[in-house]
């Protein structure tokens, strides 16, 4: 498989999306009893889209995710990326990553992008990923999903570029 070089986008050129990146042996998504996406070794990513996010933010985030060096070398060092290993990618949109629990006991989701706009941006995010990674699966946008995974390591990375 030929992999296109990824243009590095520097901090400050967007960077608002949130992601929970988990290195997995396998992961899958079921909606209404039907498997809609499944991968073997690779990354399972929960993606939160904020109301100010743009395509530039999506490009920054996917570049960061596929180039994270969180896979082991033969010596056991975390020094390989998803692109290096040829692993798969499972992307699941999750607006609840924008849940603000600072006040009261019920989260506020006012910082999450509205559903129609978020769907378009998530679709652009997925298309960008498919241009970089051989196998990209997704959940179903706005559906109630059962997500399962076997976290390898475990390795879990939180990406919140506003911080």
Q: At the first level of CATH, what is the class?
A: Alpha Beta
Low-confidence stretches: 1-15
Overall structural domain count: 1
Order of helices and strands: EEEHEEHEHEE
The tally of beta strands, per DSSP, is 8
- Biggest sheet, in brief? 6 strands, mixed
Structural shape: globular
CATH architecture: 3-Layer(bba) Sandwich
Describe how the helices and strands are arranged.
Elements: E1 18-31, E2 34-39, E3 42-48, H1 55-67, E4 71-72, E5 78-80, H2 82-85, E6 88-93, H3 115-130, E7 136-138, E8 146-160
Parallel strand pairs: 3-6, 6-7
Antiparallel strand pairs: 1-2, 1-3, 1-8, 4-5
Describe the fold and architecture.
The chain is an alpha/beta fold. It has one domain (18-160): D-tyrosyl-trna(Tyr) Deacylase, Chain: A. Helices cover 20% and strands 34% of the residues. The protein has three helices and eight strands, in the order βββαββαβαββ. Strands 1, 2, 3, 6, 7 and 8 form a six-stranded mixed β-sheet that branches. It has a two-stranded antiparallel sheet with strand order 4-5. Strand 4 and strand 5 (78-80) form a beta hairpin. The longest helix has 16 residues, at 115-130.
């Amino acid at each position: 498989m030929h992999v296109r070089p990824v243009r590095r986008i520097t901090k400050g050129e967007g960077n608002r999306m949130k992601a929970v990146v988990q290195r997995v042996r396998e992961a899958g998504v079921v909606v209404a009893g039907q498997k809609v996406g499944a991968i073997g070794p690779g990354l399972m990513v929960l993606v939160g889209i904020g109301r100010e996010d743009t395509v530039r933010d999506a490009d920054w985030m996917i570049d960061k995710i596929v180039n994270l060096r969180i896979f082991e070398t033969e010596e056991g060092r975390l020094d390989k990326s998803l692109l290096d290993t040829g692993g798969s990618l499972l992307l699941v949109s999750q607006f609840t990553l924008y849940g603000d629990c600072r006040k009261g006991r019920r989260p506020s989701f006012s910082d999450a992008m509205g559903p129609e706009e978020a769907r378009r941006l998530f679709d652009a995010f997925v298309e960008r990923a498919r241009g970089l990674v051989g196998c990209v699966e997704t959940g179903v946008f706005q559906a109630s999903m059962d997500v399962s995974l076997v976290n390898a390591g475990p390795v879990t990375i939180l990406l919140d570029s506003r911080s």
